[in-house]
């Protein structure tokens, strides 16, 4: 009883990072199932995703965000769960198509449910490269014959694609969602909107974000670790609703404070240990190591997603 009272107090903490850390640290115990299910009904973003993951781990069911199905299942097994005689291995796994979060939007095909996200875009020379990896390997040689406008229609550059993906995602931002955007310029500098306060889903804010992507210098490189730190700082002190960083980058950690993928990933994961910011890592370019190792490591440690964008996403 005392443990549940302490749990209830932590769940009412005004810092969302505290609530996320609490849910992520809970051991998968059947006796906590009802409490977590109850909290999931009022939670949003990463916090709700963590609750759903916990329910699935304890029960082995795959209802996703079908909270009404979780309610019905819990009512059936409540006595066993709270009585201490629940054995998930003996329970039938019911067929169910997982339901995504009702307020999720997509970026590069990755569903994102969030209360607040920082989009960190690498504004380096890689933005001017064709977004199709096969075209990069077979046709592009540093200087495309002719001008960019002559091949953009058939082989859009990364800059064009990320701008389109941001606009498409923004069109589905929930009304209560907050966001910021940083454009990495050089190794350790950036331009950003939403630094003092995360922005809403207003059209003028979206337009400002699109224009920021359009201003990318398309030269030099950018250090991915510094990009994550910039993302974590958006929104000001405490960052309020911020629970996700969307990192669009080659993933190369070199050029900033750390020169290897292992050192950079370890430093970020220590920094993020109690912030519990989920990282959606969208990797561009054709380099694998150390870029792939870094992007995979920071995504996995945060419960996020690492995606290698080999081709422009198919339009929907």
Q: State the secondary-structure class.
A: alpha/beta
Count of distinct strands: 8
Q: Sheet with the most strands?
A: 6 strands, mixed
Ends apart, CA distance between termini: 50 Å
How does this structure look, described?
By secondary structure, the protein is of the alpha/beta class. 40% of the residues lie in helices and 13% in strands. It has twelve helices and eight strands. It has helices at 2-11, 16-25, 33-40, 45-59, 67-83, 133-138, 148-151, 158-170, 203-214, 224-233, 261-271, 291-301, and strands at 105-107, 110-112, 116-122, 178-185, 189-193, 244-249, 278-283, 305-308. The strands form two sheets. Strands 5-4-3-6-7-8 form a six-stranded mixed beta sheet, sandwiched between helices. Strand 7, helix 12 (291-301) and strand 8 form a beta-alpha-beta unit. The longest helix has 17 residues, at 67-83. The chain is elongated, with a radius of gyration of 21 Å. 41% of the residues are buried. The mean pLDDT is 87.
Can you lay out the helices and strands and say which pair or pack?
Blueprint: H1 2-11, H2 16-25, H3 33-40, H4 45-59, H5 67-83, E1 105-107, E2 110-112, E3 116-122, H6 133-138, H7 148-151, H8 158-170, E4 178-185, E5 189-193, H9 203-214, H10 224-233, E6 244-249, H11 261-271, E7 278-283, H12 291-301, E8 305-308
Parallel strand pairs: 3-4, 3-6, 6-7, 7-8
Antiparallel strand pairs: 1-2, 4-5
Helix pairs in contact: 2-4, 3-4, 3-5, 8-9, 11-12
Task: Summarize the structure in short.
The protein has 316 residues and is α/β, with parallel strands linked by helices. The chain has twelve helices and eight strands. Strands 5-4-3-6-7-8 form a six-stranded mixed sheet, sandwiched between helices. A two-stranded antiparallel ribbon has the order 1-2.
């Amino acid at each position: 009883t005392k443990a549940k009272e302490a749990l209830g107090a932590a769940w009412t903490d005004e810092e969302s990072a505290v609530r996320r850390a609490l849910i992520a640290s809970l051991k998968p115990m059947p006796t906590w199932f009802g409490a977590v299910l109850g909290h999931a009904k009022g939670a949003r973003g990463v916090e709700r995703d963590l609750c759903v993951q916990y329910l699935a781990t304890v029960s082995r069911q795959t209802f996703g965000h079908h909270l009404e199905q979780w309610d019905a299942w819990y009512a059936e097994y409540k006595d066993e769960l709270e009585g201490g005689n629940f054995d998930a291995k003996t329970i039938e796994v019911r067929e169910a198509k997982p339901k995504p979060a009702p307020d999720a939007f997509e970026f590069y095909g990755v569903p994102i449910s969030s209360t607040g996200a920082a989009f960190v875009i690498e504004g380096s020379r890689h933005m001017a490269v064709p977004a199709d990896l096969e075209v990069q390997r077979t046709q592009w040689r540093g200087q495309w014959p002719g001008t960019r406008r002559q091949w953009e229609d058939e082989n859009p550059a990364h800059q064009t694609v990320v701008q389109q993906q941001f606009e498409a995602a923004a069109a589905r931002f929930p009304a209560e969602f907050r966001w910021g955007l940083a454009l990495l310029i050089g190794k350790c500098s950036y331009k950003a909107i939403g630094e003092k306060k995360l922005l809403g889903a207003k059209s003028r804010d979206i337009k400002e974000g699109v224009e920021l992507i359009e201003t990318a210098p398309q030269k030099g490189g950018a250090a991915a670790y510094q990009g994550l730190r910039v993302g974590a700082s958006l929104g000001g002190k405490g960052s309020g609703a911020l629970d996700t960083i969307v990192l669009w980058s080659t993933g190369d950690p070199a050029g900033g404070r750390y020169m290897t993928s292992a050192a950079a990933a370890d430093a970020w994961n220590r920094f993020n240990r109690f912030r519990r910011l989920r990282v959606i890592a969208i990797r561009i370019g054709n380099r694998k190591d150390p870029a792939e190792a870094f992007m995979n490591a920071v995504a996995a440690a945060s419960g996020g997603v690492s995606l290698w964008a080999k081709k422009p996403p198919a339009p929907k």
